[in-house]
What we know:
The complex is a heterodimer.
Chain A (H helix, E strand, L loop, with lengths): L2 H4 L8 H5 L5 H13 L1 H19 L8 H10 L44 H6 L10 H27 L11 H12 L4 E6 L5 E7 L4 E7 L8 E9 L2 E8 L6 E5 L9 E8 L12 E3 L2
Helix pairs in contact in A: 7-8
Chain B lengths: L2 H8 L8 H9 L3 H23 L2 H18 L10 H25 L14 H7 L6 H8 L3 H11 L5 H8 L3 H18 L5
Helix pairs in contact in B: 2-3, 3-4, 3-5, 4-5, 6-8, 8-10, 9-10
Amino acid sequence: MNRADDAGDDVRDLAPAYALDALDEFDRARFERALAASPELQAEVAAFREVASGLGDAVEPVSPPASLKASLFDRLDSAPQERRADAAAPVEAIDSAPAEPAPVAPVSDAPVAPATSEAPEAAQASEVQAAPVADLAARRRRRRLAIAWSSAAAAVLLIAGAFIGANWFGPNGWAAQREMAALAAASDAQQTTTPVAGGGEVTLVSSVEQGRSAILADGLSELGDEQTYELWYIDEAGASSAGTFDVAGSDEAWRILEGDFAPGVAVGITVEPAGGSPQPTTEPVAVIQT
Amino acid sequence: MLDPVVDVAEQPEEPPRALEDLLVATAAGDREAFGELYDATSARVFGLVRRLLVDAAQAEEVTQDVFLEAWQTAARFDPERGSAIPWLLTLAHRRAVDRVRASQSSRERDLKAGIRDLEVPVDEVAEAAEIAIEHEKVAGALTTLSPAQRECISLAYYGGCTQSEIATRLDVPLGTVKTRLRDGMIRLREALGVTT
């Protein structure tokens, strides 16, 4: 309800709570965005992490069952390791915080990705030095690269789906469909899929070139008349509404986000009272980092 | 007896390798080093994860995931910038918290109401705040906090609560929780002598 005053928080003030893993999704998204760009903030977080780990180290140790080690070692073969970034190359900035473990995927518990590479040639072209890791971030990167090959196909699918029950006006009208098709066909189109708390998943299609993004919702719960899903662009300054959508009658829905898509912005989805809210009033059911 | 023999006999066994060295070797794919690292740290990791998850089976799963992630991302560890234990415990805490929240949201699944899980009774708040602290240094540092700060930090770190969950549970404004966490952590940082 009173998100508006939170949006004014200095992002630096969030470092202690971030180190405790106590930030709510929105704050975490905007903090991680700022963190990636700020060595001072990274140092700040490192110091608070050390404090937090003091708290962790103070917990009485408990030996895990011996079988745990054996089954862990059984998994190593299928768990590729990241390579150490070449010491000579000034690539530190690529990873948000090299001394930090990777930010864990929001909302979901990231499953271990299969060790297979979806698009080897694309992976080679990647600016990322590290080998694929079994975390969502890496899967996202691979997916993002793979979309370059399939965006034409995706556009066809999107258009085919969107024409059913088309109106001329409105958020899913003819104009929006043309925009959607253009977006999916953009040469820099990127696609990221995230599970949604409460079931289903949502895919963000975005193009920096076009400054637009859209979501495709699949299998989300129907909310009824009293509530709606609301979209948010999230950056350091906080969350700004990017429109609402509903999934009544069909388990698939799509929507072009209102406002401009800027590179690196996060997209969040919350459940709000019908008509939407000026600021989020509930925790997001999904957050997609771009 | 010959001196050299005595020397050898009196000398303790080769000192165990520093955890940082083990982690660096792990990054290069050294499974033996990784095994040593596991032996030296798994009880601490498991202890922390269990503190957050309570359910032993889940705690075991998460602990295994933590070490698997350590194996995969050890290359990100920079011994110049920190020690192995904070690195591992950071990873462990984050994974455990993610699991706490994931199981909460699958339990709720009540999107329509848009409400959060509020079932943990307030008694557990007190328990979280009273966790037995083994480390004298940490225990000492915690005494420099106000009871309200200590409670918030305990709920966050040992309870896996977000700031707004803490606010709801304690029935205090979110801004108050933020301030308590921030000021408390700054005070702890000073008391523990951590420099930025």
